[in-house]
Amino acid sequence: MGEQHHVKFPQEVIDEYASLGIDLVAMFSAGHLGTRMGVQIVEASADRVVGTMPVEGNTQPYGLLHGGASAVLAETLGSVGSMLHAGSSKIAVGVDLNCTHHRGARSGLVTGVATPLHQGRSTATYEIAISDEAGRRVCTARLTCLLRDAPAAPDARARNAE
Questions:
Q1: CA separation for the pair 33, 11 (Å, rounded)
Q2: Catalytic residue among 12, 43, 56, 75
Q3: DSSP conformation class of 45
Q4: Edge-to-edge, what's the strand order for the sheet holding 90-101?
Q5: Which pLDDT score, from 0 to 100, does residue 3 have?
Q6: Per-residue confidence (pLDDT) for residue 131, from 0 to 100
Q7: pLDDT tens digit sequence for 101-140
Q8: CA separation for the pair 78, 31 (Å, rounded)
Q9: Please, what's the b/e burial string for 136-145 (b: 16 or more CB within 10 A of its CB; e: otherwise)?
Q10: Residue 114 CA to chain centroid, in angstroms?
Q11: Is 127 among the residues known to form the active site?
């Protein structure tokens, strides 16, 4: 889980965030929770976000993938898509997540694919399909994010106070 990982971003997104001095891989991750769970973002754009997560270490007492783990993967992928849709001047905050669990997974990796259902100015909604290594649907989720103005950078706040 600690190995270096390269996410595939569209070039215009890389350029936009690089001009702001922002590390995209760190910005578009699941943070400490995602690291503990082994979430890896593989591909990221406003129109499609793909990520994986191991089943091992993310199971409930019966040895099946925990539904909460599927929810973490789904919210991570939908949030990344929402942030990319909103652009660098906004932040995405999840306001509604629902998950339907179709089957259990006992081993291997699950892969989530988030695609937009709605991309507006103030909200974005993504459907996230999570499948096992055999391509069987494990979970279908839907995430809606509120898109809010990003807070001013600390150095910008200091300049405005002068």
A1: 28
A2: 75
A3: E
A4: 40-45, 48-54, 109-119, 123-131, 137-149, 90-101
A5: 42
A6: 98
A7: 999 999 999 999 999 999 999 999 999 999 999 999 999 9
A8: 14
A9: eebbbbbbbb
A10: 8
A11: no
